[in-house]
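@channel sequence for tomorrow's demo:
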Amino acid sequence: MISVAIVSYNEIANVPRLMKSLKGIEDVVVADDGSTDGTVEAFEKLGARVFRRHDHSSVITDADVDEFASKFDYLPRFNPGDKVFNGSACRNEAVSYAKYDWIFNPDCDEFVTWDLPAIKKMTKECDLILCKLRTPNGSQCNTMKLYNRTKLTFKGRVHELPMPIVQIKKLNAGNKMYIDHYQKPRANRLEYIHVMEYSVMRDNDVRSKFYLGREYYRYAELFKAIKMLHEYLKEGTWVPEVAEAYLLMARCYWIMDKKQEARQACMYAIHTNPDHKAALLFMAEISKKGGVWRRYAEYAKNDDILYGRDA
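structure tokens (generated this afternoon):
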């Protein structure tokens, strides 16, 4: 049996589509953060059990600001009195209300297409089922949203994932399950940065170091991006993230006119994953032998990449 555990806040526009895709699931639980737009009523009308979730936020202190500055040699974006949410705590609370150990944890702006009998059969053979997550722009990646809660639990304040607490066996759903993600583009992503800064300072969260470096790059804070990506690479082991971290560093160095460092970082990205098409194309752009690298890129399979795009 599978339970669906959802966290929500003012998702009224997405509730009908999500719940329609969950037809055949007996147990759907929702941990809501005080929605005011009818989200709770919509979920309950469609058969979900809804709970008001607890506040798992941390409140920033002066000591937190001083500790971050001491560790990283620059001031964080967070300030004393700010509240920092904890995504994994919210998701784990939702999971705690579920009846069954196998948990599917979609976001409200997602829609699942699956062969439910086949997926249920797979749950008897493993602890985690990977499936493809697709976005409207055509990108896709493997995602971890269906798992056994006795073997995995959510970790991370942001970009949270179910992580193993014991040795696990995982299977890939293949064409038996797809998740389509309809998240609207955010005009401002700054709200995430202070959470990731707090997470790397307080929790030493490795994945947050990667994503924080990526956000610094997006906001052209190149020194901070390189520093944080270096911190990530000291501990990061997942090939798609490691290769992407090196590529981001290469882009930072190139913008800073540090051409040799850029080429070296890009080579590390290619060495980590020779099929990383975006890295090969960037090397073609910054190398004197661009034609050679472009030919390599033509044959790249784009396996084991973090983002489903070429550049």
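heads up for whoever presents: The longest helix spans residues 239-255.
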